[in-house]
User: What shape does this take?
Amino acid sequence: MNLINKKVTHERFGMGSIVKHNDTVVEIHFASENKKFVYPDVFGQHLKLHDKNAANSLEKILHEQEMELKEEAMQKEEEKARQRKYQELRVGHEKLMKNHKLHPESQMVYRCDTEEEQSSSFSDWTVFSGEIKSGNNKGKPNKPSRLHQNSAVLLTTVDPGMPEKDRRILGVYMVKDNFIGKLCEDGNIPAHSHYRLKLTDEESKQMPFWKYYVNEKSPQKTTWNTGKYRYFDNSWMAQILRDIVSLKSDTEEQELAQQFLDHFSKMNQIVEQELKEPNGALMRA
Assistant: This one.
């Protein structure tokens, strides 16, 4: 906007005429001398334009600037609030987990081999860890010793006739409050009353398990030889939960997924913003 030669009135210096201006400074010639002011701020408080059209245009600029400043201030406050929340979560988690040493791989992936097993996993919201195959304890339930209240169970399957690399994620749940795997005598791993997520068939097809999981000894292989379950990295589970949040289109389900992720991150001392991108076996092939 060109303001050269526009007449103005300053509350202290009286009437004048604009002789120069740019994006940050305006220079005005008054009767006795020239004065420089911060542009456009000076028009909001001390200076009045005589030209109505120019004044209206300038008012819009000032309004936009005010809104930008408010937005910046709001973002700063939100960042401060996030930092406060993060510190509160840290302190709360330390109190909660002071008697439990956090294992870096305390998450479980479970294979649902049949449709009946898939159905019961979601209807009962529990899975069975299987039986010991040999030794003195043969036939007794496996104890999921790494699972604790910071643990989640990932439910997966491979469709009939499909290769292992096409294993897909069906859903996920946090273990029940106060669950301690090494004290679990019956092998049943019950779900938390609130933190449970089931994917639709379409969503499940977009969540390949081997996108996240990798066997570091054979990083390009997608093989699962024996056993109903495996333990895996806490951060990989967080990556999966983060992607489920993005995947969910239903507002309530997305909100629940975000609550799940927030709770899981708190329990595992994970900062969501610091999560890396998935780098499982499928990403390395």
Observations:
- Residues 52-96 form the longest helix (45 residues).
- The chain has a mean pLDDT of 91.
- Residues 133 and 173 are 27 Å apart (CA to CA).
